[in-house]
């Protein structure tokens, strides 16, 4: 499959998905609270480090309907920017967070492969979205994110991890699930090091293992 077709197919898939938590979570809306609790615990650990990140500005990548922004990032950060390629999702996110919410920052209606951060972020959160980028575009995206981190800033990645050594392709939504070793290779190519990693607990046994990675520039 060509790169253009890979991206077009994914965009077409999400264009048909309803702008709800259950929609963006592929029918697994019931795991949202467990997911947020795990992310909160992970973030709290990072904020308790001796030299923690600041909490002025965060970026939610592939923000969907604003689920992570509303329940995880907004309670911690002064401002939260969102980037999302699907128009109905980002419009819904604005409604969910409240147009007059003083913590709602800039909404970027863009795909991640075309997005270039132009601010300095204390935290860049990427969850269940990086499987929609090719390997080369993912490395390039992470490099761009690395350059746009504030001092002590971090990139957090929360993604499905393939159980075997091989990358798995989902033909329905045009996404890939990468094995752990490949994720680490990509982080190295982007000149990022893992500060902390953890497996999300409490999820159903019949879904992929979900890893959280806290990354900093080497």
UniProtKB/TrEMBL annotation:
<keyword id="KW-0489">Methyltransferase</keyword>
<dbReference type="GO" id="GO:0032259">
    <property type="term" value="P:methylation"/>
</dbReference>
<protein>
    <recommendedName>
        <fullName>Alpha N-terminal protein methyltransferase 1</fullName>
        <ecNumber>2.1.1.244</ecNumber>
    </recommendedName>
</protein>
<comment type="similarity">
    <text>Belongs to the methyltransferase superfamily. NTM1 family.</text>
</comment>
<dbReference type="InterPro" id="IPR029063">
    <property type="entry name" value="SAM-dependent_MTases_sf"/>
</dbReference>
<feature type="binding site">
    <location>
        <position position="67"/>
    </location>
    <ligand>
        <name>S-adenosyl-L-methionine</name>
    </ligand>
</feature>
<keyword id="KW-0949">S-adenosyl-L-methionine</keyword>
<keyword id="KW-0808">Transferase</keyword>
<dbReference type="Pfam" id="PF05891">
    <property type="entry name" value="Methyltransf_PK"/>
</dbReference>
<feature type="binding site">
    <location>
        <position position="127"/>
    </location>
    <ligand>
        <name>S-adenosyl-L-methionine</name>
    </ligand>
</feature>
<dbReference type="InterPro" id="IPR008576">
    <property type="entry name" value="MeTrfase_NTM1"/>
</dbReference>
<feature type="binding site">
    <location>
        <position position="62"/>
    </location>
    <ligand>
        <name>S-adenosyl-L-methionine</name>
    </ligand>
</feature>
<feature type="binding site">
    <location>
        <begin position="112"/>
        <end position="113"/>
    </location>
    <ligand>
        <name>S-adenosyl-L-methionine</name>
    </ligand>
</feature>
<dbReference type="GO" id="GO:0071885">
    <property type="term" value="F:N-terminal protein N-methyltransferase activity"/>
</dbReference>
<dbReference type="GO" id="GO:0005737">
    <property type="term" value="C:cytoplasm"/>
</dbReference>
